[in-house]
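Quick log. Single chain, no ligands specified.
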Amino acid sequence: MCVVDETIGADFLRVRCTDGISRICRIPGKFRRRVWFNSGDVVLVEPWDFQQTKGDIMHKYSKDEVKRLVSMNLITKEFIEGKT
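-> predicted structure:
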């Protein structure tokens, strides 16, 4: 799981992942012009096999899903807010 830090442009996002790596992720065609990404959104990322600092966005979690992830202790509120 990752949190969107910023939109770079040309369908790329900079995300901060729970494994401590900051990645540049590509927005696949199925999300373009259908799903909008903002800073602070929680997303699921699949890292590339050949380059671990890049990846693809697989899913954007809704607010209810994020609350459920926090209640299950899979992600912390501090990580989402960017404090740690």
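The first strand starts at residue 2 and ends at 9.
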